[in-house]
Amino acid sequence: MAKSKKNNRVAWSEGEVNLLKRLFPLGRAREIAEQTGRPLTAVRQKAYSMGINTRRRRLWSANEIKLLKKLYSSENTQSIADKLRRSLQSVKQKANLIGFKKVRVAPVWSRQEEALLRKMYPDNSIRDIAYQLGRTVLAVTGRAHKLGLRKLNPVWSKRELNLLRKLHPSRTTQQIADQIGRTVQATQLRIHRLGLKKRFR
Fold first, then answer.
1. 69 Cβ neighbours under 8 A, 6+ residues apart
2. Three-class SS of residue 109?
3. DSSP state letter for 67
4. Cα–Cα distance between 152 and 167 in angstroms, integer?
5. Which of 32, 47, 57, 167 could bridge 52 with an S-S bond, Cβ 3.0-4.6 Å?
6. Torsions phi, psi of 7, nearest 5?
7. CA separation, residue 21 to residues 17, 95, 133, 149 (Å)
8. CA-to-CA distance for 179 and 159, rounded, in angstroms?
C-alpha cells in the first residue's frame, strides 16, 4: 500500500476497500488512515462515496467509562480516543454528558522564580512582579502567602492611589486589588484610610 503524500489520488486497492468496509462502520477511520497511509479526509470521502456509514453508536461499557474518568482530566483527548478505539467526537460527547472536566494544572514554581519573587516582593508591586515572572497576579499573591513573604515598603504611589479612587465606585475590592497589583487586605486598608465610600443610586 503506497504511503506517499499523493496517496489520496491513488486508486483504492481491493484490500484497502475491504479494510474500509470492515473498520469504518466501527468508527475507526483514523486506524484506516494509518494503515493505508491516506489522509483522514480521504478515508471519510471514500466511505461517503461508497455509502458506508458508521454503525449505530455502541454503548459505553463500565470499564470504558472508568478509564475515561481516570484519564480525561489530565490526558490528551485524542490519546484517550485512540486507547478506547473510539472517535474523538464520541469521547468528547461522552465526557461532556457525564460532566468530566479538564484540569488545568498551574506550572510548578522553579527555584529561580521563587528566588526572584523573594527578591522583588518587599518593594515592588505585585503586578510588576507578575509581569516579570510571566505569572498572574493571583498566582504571585498566592505563592507569596505560602512562602510567608511580607511587604517591607507598603507606600502607595500616586498612580496607585489615583487608580484606586477611579476604580472604587464601580469595582469590587478583589477586582481593584488585582488591577493595581496589591493584596485584597492592603487594598481594603487603603480604602478605609482614604475614607472612600461606595455611591449608591
1. 98, 100
2. coil
3. H
4. 25
5. 47
6. -60, -25
7. 6, 28, 55, 65
8. 12
- Residue 58 is classified by DSSP as P
- Residue 3 is predicted with a pLDDT of 47
Residues 74, 76, 78, 81: what is their CA dihedral angle, to the nearest 10 degrees?
A: -20
| The three three-digit cell numbers of residue 66, written as one number | 472508568
As a whole number of Å, the end-to-end CA separation of the chain is 76
Q: Please indicate whether residue 147 or residue 186 has the higher confidence score (pLDDT).
A: 147
Contact 88, 78 (CB under 8 A): yes
Q: Which residue has the cell 472604587?
A: 168
What is the distance of C-alpha 183 from the center of its chain? 26
The model carries a pTM of 0.34
Q: How far apart are CA 186 and CA 43, in angstroms?
A: 61
Rg, Å, the chain Cα set: 28
27 has pLDDT over 80: no
Distance separating alpha carbons of residues 147 and 129, to the nearest angstrom: 15
Q: Residue 135: which region, alpha, beta or left (left: phi > 0; alpha: psi -120 to 50)?
A: beta
Report d(CA 65, CA 93) in Å as an integer: 12
**Cα-Cα-Cα-Cα dihedral sign, residues 118, 142, 108, 137:** negative
